[in-house]
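Predict the 3D structure for this chain.
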Amino acid sequence: MTLTILIEQGFNGFQFGMMLFLMAAGVTLVFGTMRVINLAHGSFFMLGGYFLVGGLTWTKSYLLAIPIALFATALVAVLVEMIVLRPLYRRGELEQVLATFGLALFFDEAVTVIWGRDPIPLSVPPWLTGSVQLFPGSHYPVYRLVITAVATAMGIALYFLIVRTRIGALIRAGRDNREIVAALGINVHLLYTLVFALSAALAALAGIMMGPLLSVEPGAGDPILILALVVVVIGGLGSVWGAFIGALMVGLFDTMSRVLIPMVLQTNATSALIGMAVYVLMAAVLVLSPGGLFSPHRG
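Done. Predicted structure below.
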């Protein structure tokens, strides 16, 4: 029974890690390309869920509501980049952090005005209900397997976008030396807008997929953003490959700690130790590698 639980939790950890990768990849893309630490990134996770709710109310179909939610979130991101972030590129980091933190508060209040403060439950799409047998005595939800498959496919697509396409070459060049990219006649502002919209769409996709597992509510993306920042710190700021490895580490470590710590330690501090686990992991990585596991230039 214990082995079965560990294997199932291993699948859960991998699924959680891939979802964190969608979040962390957006954070590290924005920082690596635009040199902006976006504290409003969790809001795009939340908006993905709320726009899915709106799309379902309007269309009654997940197949139609999902692209609507992705497009709407990307459109909001484009407006945010053009109106709020663009004037701040030449400003200091403090102004950027304060502005994006203010955006997070704004979006939390905006969804409260429109949808209210009560959590909105979402059901799993009917065609993704049920479970599959991983091995005798173990059944795993189909929906969680789909989340893992979609997140993995997006990770592969993102890798090919960055490594194999012209846009990816511009993103990597902009990360290394944005002045030279501008001197070559590339529209840097347009590049930044596209990167920011892509990062928001990745966060929205994570929010859409996690909606049926979590409730859609104001501030739903804040805890996920904190873990995504831990992932980015572990993997190395600006490194997409580091975000992938860091996300798997955090996802598996967090999930397994919630199973193993209560089994090993029977104390009143168990919940506190579980909450500290990923931060202990981050501290250990930073002691061994202060810049994270991967250099930003190896993205």
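The longest strand covers residues 131-135.
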